[in-house]
Task: structure prediction
Amino acid sequence: MDIEIYFKPIHLTGYEYAEKSHRRRLGDVVKSYNTASGFPDLDNIDIAIFGINEDRNAINNEGCASAPDIIRKKLYKLFEGGNKTKIADLGNIKKGNTINDTYFAVTSVVSELLKNDIIPVLIGGSHDLTYANYQAYESLEQVINIVAVDSVFDLGKSEEDFNSQSYLSKIILHQPNYLFNYTNIGYQTYLIDQEAIGLMKNLFFDIYRLGNVRANIEEVEPIVRNADLVTFDISAIRQSDAPANGNASPNGFYGEEVCQIARYAGMSDKLTSIGFYEVNPKLDRQEQTLHLVAQMIWYFIDGFYNRKHDFPLKEKENYIKYLVSIKDHKDEIVFYKSKKSDRWWMEIPIKTNMKPKYERHYLVPCSYQDYQTACKDDIPDRWWQAYQKLM
Result:
């Protein structure tokens, strides 16, 4: 597929750095779609960035469509990390005559990039574009996990119009369904109907309150390591750190915390796409939020180039295996610890005939804390949640 037809070039004024210092900035090394050089060659590209100027389904945040180019301007001023990056900037998706045209274009582009083992980095636009990103996995017939960093669940109600605050219902109801698990990181209870919290638990989805996450931010790493798709709503960040959002709250993550989460996402061997949404330049202060999102993307890139490639499906000799017996539980809990990275996984019992379908899901990323919980004769919550989905 020729995905160039979906894009318009970006204008590089303010992005180039011809006066190169001894270290290269991203503006010097990213292969960008512009009028001078044309659409970039995607051979040997690891990551493809593209913008989506779409906010027709934004709720209380019209204007977020204009964010991609300004985020680029901030991103390309940052220096390249310790690795030689292979990144392309495909430009901006052309806004469709209808919003469904835009969704179709996003889905088609992401699908093609995934087939070529290129990680798409989507810069929105409104959060409903996550649905278009999710649809791309349908062509791969791949059951996936979604992790959303968001202050709310974006469930809405099924009878309501589809928008940036109801896209998750659309994903849940979509047929055929390729969603294995949805995880929310950072929800704020006072912003959410208690019935919605009950629904999420009934669906065996994983939800983590903001206060619990911030109290132990390192525990986010195994959560994100289990994701295929990560999506950030900038309203999850406190207003003082990220004012460029019509739904911003006084409470939320600090800037350095979301950068850490973005780096965890980059380091995940499993993750194959990521999106950053709901940045509204009209509401920003001295482009503070735009600069923060650029740094989040930088941290994601840095994490990607520090991947350990140690997901324990093969070469079990590279792992230490631990068996933990739990009282009144018929199966031992099997843990694996990577000798390369010291990261942990636990194995969920599953019928042999189901393993091909759920091959990527019955080994669940976990932490040393989960192993300690099992050693105290208690089943880790992460194990139990995954077990109920696979039953």
Remarks:
- DSSP finds twelve helices and 14 strands in the chain.
- The longest strand covers residues 179-187.
- The chain has two domains: 3-304, 316-390.
- The first helix runs from residue 26 to 29.
